[in-house]
Design goal:
heterodimer; A: mainly alpha; two-stranded antiparallel sheet; 15 helices; globular; B: mainly alpha; two-stranded antiparallel ribbon; 8 strands; 5% strand; Cytochrome d ubiquinol oxidase subunit II (chain A); Cyt-d_oxidase_su2 (chain A); membrane (chain A)
Chain lengths: 341, 446
């Protein structure tokens, strides 16, 4: 494996991890708004998960940017130039959301505002984030000499963008429903579990439909991607199998206990489903970062920097692993935290 | 305004805003750790109350520090894409390690805030220690990139801009890294301590029950002790940083001192301003030989003046004023902390007197002043490097974005920063008004 491919593999892994955690994070914000004061405690469960974790998820977003600059500096140059407006909007929303998350913890009067801000930004931020995919597939960047710029009006009038957004949002809500179903089950809140489970039953097929339509209505400039995707069929078939396992395990009875579904299994199989699809998409996207102007080979960093970054990732993650473990024990496993009223 | 000036104004505003919260985000955790330790050693519950209340304030400030830090981090790529392309190749290492420090801080902050009641006492101390460690490590690592911009190292560049022979660790440990990053960390500690002293002094201005007065006096004494120590160390490290300027960025030192002619036995100009017409410092106080001595410890040291360098690479003249303000504030605060502690020792502790109003009011101002000193220092460091973004490698114009949509975005973010500032103040006052220290004391007794 060449250095460039190793670097893009790392990058995709980070993007994948963030897209899962980000979906759960922003989705929880949305559900916490919808189910605020709901009798099943579904809103409170979403919020209980969100309070200690959003900061870590946010750090991961910064990690994505930093890793991208480190591995593919030329890519940071191109995307930094063309993404000025959408990314600035993301930053703006993110700042308001984060601030209110913290403020509402200190002063109760801000709670309602916080739920609304975090709920709405929970839909807007992911929609803006996913816009990077259609942009990277070509057709939305004008090149004039050595200056590049985003064709904003073309992007905003293109159905591809909205189908991507639809796919992103249904996936976000599906993943977060599944996660919160599992979280509710661990917290022994069966009513909230049932609520999130029924959301997931509705959303699951919608994500597939959205994905299908996204591919059907792809722009002519992105034809190359469809051809490449066809060569990666196997990953998408496997992904579909994972989806079916996930989806049907929502009806799989619990062992020796009343109640329906195995949310943990569903969640893991769904993560696998998105993982397999990401591999297929990632392979089809190679070697381009931004089609047709920028490949991973042109964008790659200095080799010496690449190796020292790789070493530091291994060292850093090894040092942090116990911290993450303690965190998981305290907020995702500890019954004293989960089962409080 | 042209795009480059606008990009500088935009980024400078983002950074200037973030610095306030980031500095307190480094300074306050140290105070919390010290209070927790004193509490565990002496068993005095007042220190536990202090730690608890400062943590509350810290958590609110963190609510702005995190998103504003995210903004600054991402805006680097948006506003300075040309700069980040070189950064990515040469100096991405500290950025990346900083992420780990950031994770450390975020993980243990959540644990300290949301799981404190489920944790044994010693583990709370460990958590807050890691929060403080993560915070200061972040500051040092981010400063590493800035020091590299001032004294770039660890790579070679061809005339066409191709970068080769990269050595990431040499870039990291560039000539000014240790001295400047240390200065950043220590001044953040100094500012955190003065910020606490400001609040304690303010509380002592009004008549209060003896029990509460004693509480605030403890806070004041503790913060002034830290502030005095840190002011002293930051003066020494600042002096060292100036010597590094003498060696590695002579134009910057020359502009800071308004020195035009290269000379031995160079004088130090304090105050005044650099007149662009006559090319000299007006209305300043000149101390003969002092600059040469400061630059390298000997009176006959040759200090390079601005005439030594091409005119188009001169930093702006106003950096002389910025430099004086930074040094002036640092010196003033060092003196203030010393006077206040002496007063405490001779009159408050021994004779049971109260602090006089003028001294308390000066102390109230010390926190904001210290923060101003830091802001001046950063503006000095970055303006004094102009016209370069990476010293003698890349100009600011080359680094800046070519995108012309900055104006509206700048206004949008100005509004955001104003909103967040107002909200922060409102929330802090609302919280501490509803939870006065007397309430915490009662809670502890019951």
């Amino acid at each position: 494996m060449s250095e460039e491919v190793l670097a893009i593999l790392m990058m995709w892994t980070f993007i994948f991890i963030y897209s899962i955690f980000g979906s759960i994070d922003f989705g929880s914000g949305f559900w916490a708004m919808i189910y605020n004061n709901h009798k099943t405690m579904a809103g409170r469960i979403a919020n209980r998960f969100l309070s200690p974790t959003w900061e870590i998820t946010n750090t991961f977003l910064v990690l994505l940017v930093v890793a991208f600059v480190g591995f593919f500096p030329k890519g940071a140059y191109t995307l930094g130039t063309v993404m000025l407006v959408p990314v600035s909007l993301i930053l703006f929303l993110l700042a308001i959301r984060s601030a209110f998350m913290v403020f509402s913890y200190s002063v109760q009067g801000y709670r309602r505002t916080m739920f609304i801000i975090s709920g709405i930004s929970g839909l807007l931020i992911p929609s803006l984030l996913i816009a990077v995919l259609p942009i990277s597939q070509g057709g939305f960047i004008a090149v004039d000499g050595d200056t590049q710029s985003l064709l904003l009006s073309k992007l905003l009038t293109s159905p591809t963008l909205y189908l991507y957004v639809l796919f992103g949002l249904t996936s976000e809500l599906y993943l977060s429903s599944l996660f919160l179903a599992d979280y509710a089950r661990v917290s022994k809140k069966e009513d909230a579990y049932r609520l999130y489970r029924s959301n997931a039953i509705l959303l699951g097929p919608l994500t597939l439909l959205a994905a299908l339509f996204t591919l059907l209505f792809i722009t002519p400039e992105s034809r190359w991607l469809i051809d490449n995707l066809m060569d990666q069929k196997i990953w998408f078939i496997l992904s579909l199998v994972a989806f079916l396992i996930a989806y049907f395990s929502l009806w799989w009875p619990k062992q020796n206990r009343p109640g329906i579904g195995r949310p943990r299994l569903t969640l893991l199989a769904t993560v696998l489903q998105y993982g397999l699809a990401s591999v297929g998409y990632g392979l089809a996207h190679l070697p381009y970062i931004v089609y047709p102007d920028l490949t991973i080979y042109e964008a790659f960093t200095a080799p010496e920097t690449f190796y020292s970054l790789m070493i530091m990732y291994i060292v850093g993650l090894a040092i942090l692993a116990p911290g993450f473990y303690i965190f998981w024990r305290l907020f995702l496993k500890d019954k004293r935290y989960l089962q409080q009223e | 305004m042209d795009t480059v000036v606008l990009a500088r104004a935009f980024f400078g505003t983002s950074l200037g805003f973030h610095i306030i919260f980031a500095t307190l985000g480094v300074g306050l955790p140290l105070m919390i750790v010290i209070a927790e330790i004193i509490h565990q050693v002496k068993g005095d519950n007042d220190y536990a109350i202090m730690a608890k209340r400062w943590t509350k304030a810290f958590a609110v400030l963190l609510g702005v520090a995190i998103p504003s830090g995210t903004i600054v981090g991402v805006q680097l790529s948006l506003l300075w894409p040309g700069f980040m392309e070189i950064v990515g190749k040469v100096i991405s290492l500290p950025f990346q390690i900083e992420i780990f420090a950031f994770f450390l801080e975020a993980l243990f902050m959540s644990i300290y805030v949301y799981a404190a009641d489920r944790l044994p006492r010693y583990f709370r101390l460990i958590s807050v220690f890691f929060v403080a460690l993560g915070a200061v490590a972040s500051a040092i690592l981010i400063s590493a990139v800035n020091t590299w911009m001032n004294t770039p190292d660890g790579f070679k560049i061809k005339p066409d801009g191709t970068i080769y022979d990269v050595s990431p660790w040499d870039a990291f440990f560039n000539p000014s890294f240790l001295s400047s990053s240390f200065h950043v960390a220590i001044t953040a500690y100094m500012t955190g301590a003065f910020a606490v002293a400001s609040v304690a002094a303010f509380k002592l201005l009004k008549k209060r029950p003896e029990r509460e007065r004693a509480y605030h006096l403890k806070g004041l004494f503790m913060s002034l002790t830290v502030a005095l120590l840190m002011s002293f160390v930051s003066a020494v490290s600042g002096h060292h940083s100036a010597q590094i300027l003498h060696q590695h960025s002579p134009e910057k030192l020359a502009a800071a001192e308004g020195l035009f002619e290269t000379q031995r036995y160079a004088p130090l100009a304090i105050g005044g301003y650099t007149d662009p017409k006559t090319e000299e410092v007006k209305y300043g106080i000149e101390i003969p030989w002092a600059l040469s001595w400061l630059a390298a410890g000997k009176f006959d040291t040759e200090v390079k003046g601005l005439y030594e360098f091409p005119r188009e690479t001169w930093p702006p003249f106003y950096v002389h004023t910025l430099f004086n303000l930074m040094v002036g504030i640092g010196t003033l605060l060092l003196g203030l902390a010393a006077v206040a502690l002496a007063y405490w020792w001779f009159f408050v502790k021994r004779k049971g007197k109260q602090f006089p109003k003028w001294l308390l009011w000066s102390l109230v101002l010390s926190g904001p002043l210290s923060m101003l000193g830091i802001e001046f220092g950063w503006v000095f460091s970055c303006s004094g490097r102009q016209p370069w973004t990476i010293y003698r490698v890349q100009t600011t114009a080359e680094a800046a974005t070519k995108n012309e949509d900055l104006g509206v975005l700048f206004l949008l973010f100005l509004g955001l920063y104003a909103l967040l500032s107002v909200l922060t103040v409102l929330i802090l006052t609302a919280y501490f008004k509803r939870n006065p220290v007397s309430k915490d004391m009662e809670k502890l007794q019951s």
